[in-house]
Design goal:
Layout lengths: L5 H9 L1 E4 L2 E4 L11 E9 L4 E8 L2 E10 L5 E6 L10 H11 L2 E6 L15 E3 L2 E4 L8 E5 L5 E5 L5 E3 L4 E3 L4 H14 L2 E5 L1 E4 L2 E2 L10 E10 L5 E12 L1 H14 L3 E8 L7 E4 L5 E6 L10 E6 L3
Antiparallel strand pairs: 1-2, 3-4, 4-5, 5-18, 6-22, 7-20, 7-22, 8-9, 10-11, 10-14, 12-13, 15-16, 15-19, 17-18, 17-19, 20-21
């Protein structure tokens, strides 16, 4: 319940019964934020390193959010950017093989955008050290790096100041030499890289109102720090058809109200294959959170897993 301001916390205590990790509402089904966006706690998972919330807008069901806390070092990310032609393996095949040896799966969802003919991901892409697409997509200024160790960082391509510690310098993707060095580094480190739309960077909205072109279901990945300074990844799964600009603005305001330092907010693809599944510790899927398509149809896949050790 650390998400809510003191007065909202008091209101929650008056209308809820504590039943372990979850709070069951008695009188009110939601706690309203001043701008209309709100959340109620649904379930805590994996020693409370993962928390699932119901998401509401003006009291109506809007979707869900999944908060993944990185402080323990047990919550990690893995991204499957594309199928492996050399092994004749689809994304689902690769994920299934990896899952057999991986620790507990927390969640999976569709990630970056794919070309219309499904031939390759849109934008610069490296998959576990294997270069898939060398072309930088100029319309997407978000660069996402998933380390082999399970961490994620985001950079603004427009700023051209991605710092790589192993190179001890900053790189600018629009410089051909820097781009070559980045790709060489990714190959040597088994890193994964993809591009997508950067909606918010360092607490500043980066999408203009021109983003109000098409209503659709949306999924946003937020990398940030909670009010204690601890790193948290948040996936907002918005089931209603909304404008991208509107939802980015609403989520940013909501997080800032709750003292979350938003390092980056990224747009994840829900168009071709809207995939999202969240799992409990026993391996069963959480039925409350679900996309429209099964994982076997994935053209790419963002996975979070729980490392017990």
């Amino acid at each position: 319940m650390s998400l809510f301001r003191p007065l909202l916390l008091l209101a929650a205590c008056l209308c809820c019964i504590d039943v372990g990790f979850a709070y069951v509402p008695i009188f009110s089904p939601f706690i309203m934020d001043s701008d209309g966006l709100s959340e109620t706690f649904y379930q805590g998972l994996f020693d409370n390193n993962v928390k699932v919330y119901r998401l509401y807008k003006d009291g109506d069901r809007y979707g869900q959010s999944v908060w993944l806390y990185r402080k323990s070092g047990k919550v990690k990310a893995k991204y499957f950017a594309h199928k492996d032609y050399s092994q004749d393996q689809s994304v689902f095949d690769r994920y299934s093989d990896w899952k057999e040896d991986a620790d507990q799966i927390i969640m999976v969802c569709s990630g970056a955008f794919t070309s219309q003919d499904y031939s390759k991901p849109v934008g610069l892409t490296v998959d576990n050290g294997r270069i898939v697409n060398r072309k930088v997509e100029e319309s997407m200024d978000g660069l996402v790096i998933i380390y082999a160790t399970g961490g994620i960082v985001v950079s603004d391509i427009d700023e051209g100041n991605l710092y790589l510690q192993s190179l001890n310098r900053k790189v600018d993707l629009r410089d051909s030499r820097d781009k070559y060095d980045l790709l060489s580094w990714a190959e040597s480190e088994d890193a994964t890289i993809f591009q997508t739309q950067l909606l918010v960077y360092k607490n500043q909205l980066r999408i203009s109102s021109e983003g109000r072109k098409e209503r659709a279901a949306r999924r946003l990945l937020v990398l940030g720090q909670d009010k204690h300074g601890d790193v948290v990844h948040i996936v907002f799964n918005v089931e209603e058809d909304v404008y991208l600009y509107d939802i980015a603005q609403e989520v940013l305001k909501y997080l800032q109200t709750n003292k979350v330092n938003v390092i980056g907010m990224l747009n994840l693809d829900t168009g071709m294959y809207n995939i999202m599944e969240v799992y409990k510790e026993d391996g069963y899927q959480l039925s409350y959170v679900e996309g429209d398509e099964p994982v076997r149809k994935a053209t790419n896949l963002l996975s979070y897993y729980y490392n017990k050790e």
